[in-house]
Amino acid sequence: MVSTVTIYKNAGIIKIDEVSFCPKKFSDITIEGGHPDGPVWSLGAARAVISIADANLLVASGVTDNR
What we know:
By secondary structure, the chain is mainly β. 13% of the residues lie in helices and 37% in strands.
């Protein structure tokens, strides 16, 4: 599971465990369900299991919730 998720909404950056992602729109990122360890953050081929709290923060910032 991911240790840290940092959202830089004004800069359009989401940082997951020291890896920065700059999607064209936050809504291009999805939160998927179905993994036994928690929600899955997804952008293209990149995927990471995140906490429910981080998933909720990401959805509040504009990420698409497909749980």
